[in-house]
Amino acid sequence: MEGLPRDALVHTLHYLDATDMRAVALVSRRLHDLQQTHPVLWEALFRLHWNVCNFFMDPSRRIELSPAVGAAYSNPSDAFRFLTHCLQRVPSFADIYLTNAHATSSLLQHRIEPVAYDNGQVVTLALAKGTDVGGNRCVRANMPFDVSPRVSVMCTSRNTWLVDVLYDGYFEISISDACTTTPDAWDHQADKCIAIGVATAAFEVVDQQPGWDDHSYGYHSDDGQFFTDGQPRPFAATFGVHDTIGCGVERNMVTHGSTLYFTKNGVRLDGTFPCNHEALYPVVGLDADYTVRLNCGQMPFECPPPPSAASVEALEELQAQPWAPCHQRKSTCLITQLWRRVQVWLSGGAV
Predict the structure, then answer these.
(1) Where are the domains of the chain?
(2) What sign for the dihedral angle of Cα 186, 189, 191, 196?
(3) Which of 125-139, 158-172, 287-301, 311-325 has the lowest mean pLDDT?
(4) Is 147 exposed, middle or buried (0-12, 13-18, 19+ CB in 10 A)?
(5) What pLDDT is recorded for position 39?
(6) CATH number of the structural domain 96-320
């Protein structure tokens, strides 16, 4: 293969998975050098793995590495190789199926209806089924914000994907009217409630709101209060339809403490609240027939989280961890596949 045209080899490398890409770089100096001079190879694998594990990255938006990641890797190819092998599942979509699985036939008002999907696959817009007040239920994200460092992808207002390694977490919800409204729905506007917060894995998603137990924390729309352990605390103004509310988790790995903060329509609200220093799921409480869109970074945030002060520490901790195995290997011999694709490419056929 050493004598093959450079373009033929680069074209063929685009068809390898992450495991095989690493393997060919180990056995061939030329293939290693091609990966170094063509960072798009590992960038494409990073995008592919992220799309499989999390939300869809629009290919029309370029990737922007954070200052910490960019400083650690002078060659973008090395950065994307590291990120590809270290990324894991993170909060990406609303897990309405968990809520509906806990709703019984006698509690149909607890069910959640999907309204819109991200890339046709996962729910980003959800509607509380029914209009009866008292149907307290919650929608949890598919994954928690873990305490350990993780690869983060966030869409920016610059039309780019910002890739970083973080301990912290942030998400937003946007509230809009129900798709259909019954004539008497407006009679209960004052009784309707949306709550946003985080919860541990022990939190029950049916028959309660975030903050009603000691496993969760929530900012409630109807009275503007912050709840935890069932206790209300005066916090901020009420919110409702046409508002965008955010919730952030900030980790202090020195003191092993975590705090929550909230945002409203692009402005960070005064006040922070201590919370459990453990894995925390984004959670939204619904006692209203509003539609709620969950944004975990797929779209630009109204109030982007500030740069993390511990981004370098998070990156160094993740670098010290062993790389997890990548996706399944191909059943046929790598060299055989590689040679077949080169032969087809050289003959002018479609690969």
Answers:
(1) 96-320
(2) positive
(3) 125-139
(4) middle
(5) 95
(6) 2.60.120.920
